[in-house]
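seq/struct pair 1
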Amino acid sequence: MTLQNPRLVAVMLSLLVFVIGLSLFKSASAKRPVQPPSGFVITYGLTKTAPGQTPVFEEIQTRFVQAGGNWKQVRYFLHDGGESLTEGAAQGVVLSVGKNSLEFTGLASPAEQEQAFRSEAFHKSHPEFARMDSVVGLPTYVHLAERNGTRVETYFATETGRTPLKTVVRTSDGSQMVTEALSVQFRDVADGEVALPSMPIGFERAQNRIGALAPESAEVLRRQVSEAKQRLSLTR
């Protein structure tokens, strides 16, 4: 077919340039670098379902995460007199707020792991990757793990890194527990929002666990306690 209308030729050339440009844009978007860290606040709802029963909405959780990695999470128990539980991470150490002290819970995920969870390639090559889904409008990578009759699905978004947007736990007796983000807000998170009370730091709970664990697991926890004390001594 021969095109003799100059205006038609111009329109088709413009359309061709647009299509090529769009193709190049999609190619560049697919090769974007890993998502940069950003502060965010997630509000979760936790629902439990006993075998053969209707779901019961039991908790509201709010998690504040700074771009640098410090975080705090507050859990509000709806059926236990309105009590709450607070824990957070600072200097790479996770602490739980008790009545008289901050109790050591564990070590936070290393920065390298946090960065990996912001990569699409990491998730799609992960041995536990099962499928794509969506939570609060964000694409999520669902990791599936099954251990001792318990099936756990964890939904990760590159925008929130190692912090999952949803977790579904199903046990062999038919029980189910779902923790799912109700909202996600990306913004600067102030130091005061992740600050824990100024209280003594205790390791009693961890020491009791060490005594009850198998030797290999006990040694891992013992090293974590030692590492936590070293990290905290630099800032406290």
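seq/struct pair 2
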Amino acid sequence: YIFIEEEYFTLNVTGLAQDEEGNYVLNKGRSRDFTINVDRHYNNGSAAVVEPVSKDIDVNVEATNMEFYDSSKKQVYILKANTTYTLKHIATSTDIIKFSTWIPTSTDPIECTQDITVTTTTGENELLGYSLSLSGDIAIHYYLALAEDISSDSNTHMVFTMPNGTSSTVYVKDAVKTKANGMDCYVFTHKVSAKNMTSVVSSTLYDGENNVVEESEYSVEKYCDYIFAHPDSFSAKQTDIAKAMLTYGYYAQRYFGYNTDKLPKTISPLQDVDFTPYAYQNVDSNPDLEFIGARLVLTSKPGLKLYFKGNADLLLNGSVASTTQEGAYTVITISDIDDMSTMYMVMADSYNLTYGMFSFANQAMKGTNTDLKNLMKAMYAYNSYFK
């Protein structure tokens, strides 16, 4: 073979990480798209050629105007000059793929001096992807492949940080072990409140010595956009739930006045709702107890705070109620409501209150706060998928 000066071809790779020696790395069993861009040409537009040298690794080349070059000595793919191509690499073993540049001639390819090497490894720590809870709560699931020394250290943990600086931590011992694409991985889950649909969550995985292993940024809206862009991969119901979730988040942001310059882009139209069947019932013959009102709590699942004035032993649905004090008021907090149409019974001596999330909505409809009314309608539509 005749050497061709390296300056004739420059192959730039994007989409793959590099190790300390400059090799591009990909984990065993992993599939990832990466691009090779030929940004120089030879002999007035002659094509550069890339050959996958390793025979054990499947390399699927998908590119427009790609021509297959068949030589008696080599089988290679011709890449046009000044063009970006995407190659899908599926690593099936710990191995090395070497891509070499060539110049096709009338007989045999002529080797160029530049190589691209992709090394597959078995112990890589990598974020494989995300999923979104579509079962009533609002949560992002992070799928990570972890090396043995990382996964076996009980102090390994992931920190999720919101734009306002609040954070939460999940340790690897609390992550769910599963398989993704045939690989063992760990699922770390971060719950998101309704008003944070568009908020970018920063996640950082730390090893047991607090060294950063993996970092990423993601949002609920970003995954919903992925659902909308891939209708063949999701059912119609899943798509509708994603839209209802964003609509719920849109009006939560409006009601709380939070991040209103970045509202969800895709929402569904609101429908009028009759909440009167959920009107609260209050049988009060106890002069020492008075129901003051309720407050809405929106975390990954909605909740209510019920405020009472006076002294009494309170029961919630027949069991002793857990109460807190806020100033002069006794408060019962009902958290993580799965079905917003559920009615709850608060009882005391000569006292009975029946109240639910949609009782709060019924009261809201009598008021003048349009954002709150719209939020209640959006909550009703979202809840309808999980009754």
